[in-house]
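Box 3.1 A note on notation
Throughout this textbook, protein chains are presented in two layers. The first layer is the amino acid sequence; the second is a token string describing backbone geometry. Keep the layers aligned when reading.
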Amino acid sequence: MSKTNEILSCRRILTTMVITCFILHQMLRINISIAIVDMGKSGDTNESLSNSERFFWTEKEKGHIIGAYFWGQLLMALPAGRLSEIYGTRLVLGSAMFLAGILTIIIPLVAHFSYYLLLLTRVGLGLALGAINPAIPPLAIRWTGPTGISKFLSHTRAVYLGGALTLPACGFLIANWGWRSVFYVTGGIALIWTYFWFLLVYNSPEQHPRISEEEKNVINAKLCTNFTRKTIPWSKILTSVPVHVLVIVCGSYLMTVNMAYNYLPYFMDTVLHFNIQENGLLGSLPYLASYGSAVGCCYIADKWFKTKTYPTLTIRRFFMVVCLGGSVLVFGILCFWGDCSTVAVIVFVVWFTCHGCSTPSISANTIDVAPAYGGTVSGLMYTFGSLLSYVETVVIGLITEDNHTLEQWRCVFGLLIGANLLGLLIFLLFGTTETQSWNFDKRKVETVETADGDLETGGLV
């Protein structure tokens, strides 16, 4: 092992905390998606593996419970991205996770008192968790150089690992201690994690009180100059075609992710007729495939980028075709054979594997276009994506209101085919990897030589 690899302990700790952050992010987001299958069941208690209190919610009301999350995410995504650029990811993300843990723990209590109070709590959870994704780009550009961006961002795809762990864990908790335990356990873990986040993570190597000078020098040698800006060119960002492309593509992607996170347990329960433990176990398989795909694809993308095997735009387009084009193919298959449990499980695994390619395409392209305003652009993307995702939950609720049948789900799959196809075509026609001129305060740009000998466009001089 090289001496450089031996000393990068603080960055390894940061990597571990980011991975566990997104595992928890997913736990807190989707725990209700499998718990609500048990919470909302009526009739004989033999229908479920738990004897907990149940609520007689309609399918439309269940859709609003799930969808209320997106109102909070919609409101917080843009402010969180900008606040992270100004005040740092450490404060924004840590505070968001602490609030999310508290709100998760009180869900059983508020559900007992009021359906509308539960909706408000879900909005609050969306506000908290909606801050996490846009907060990552400002952290990434302070701890890693351009040749490692995709690899660093791949850690955010630990959300898939979180899904793989959450679904079977929720099934086990519900089967043994009732649906309430899901929220107590996941919320409690989030609060413990928050303590270690503030103890171990800092916004940059310069701010870290325990980093060695040797490690700091190794990290800084790979970084571009500081991209922090106190002002922001709103008019140029809001009228930028590359930003519009990213917003539309991210919206298409998030619609598909929303369906998977929030309605895959429904589909497996009502159409494929898996019981709640099978639902959790089988539902976790696609998430494992997606996490492995994300890590592998980002390794390949960074290698191609560093060795200049292909132009950066070609790399982004390739992974975008796999990500969104794969979704189009998968939903087409489900329209015909979605009622076959074997086909459905295999197809879901393939689908999530394709979605692992979103990191070296969508996420990395955000930093290609505007490294100085990665948090703000990500905020815009997640704001629009959250709005579309909420509309989608309402539409799915209306489509499946009477009963969950394959015919109704074909309408849902057709909607997602159109969304993914639109996003793919727009990126192939108008997508770019050129850093926009409004990213810089001045016209003169510094070229920085990295430790690997590569020349990279840096920040301002």
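The first helix runs from residue 3 to 7. Confidence is low (pLDDT under 50) at residues 1-7, 42-51, 443-461.
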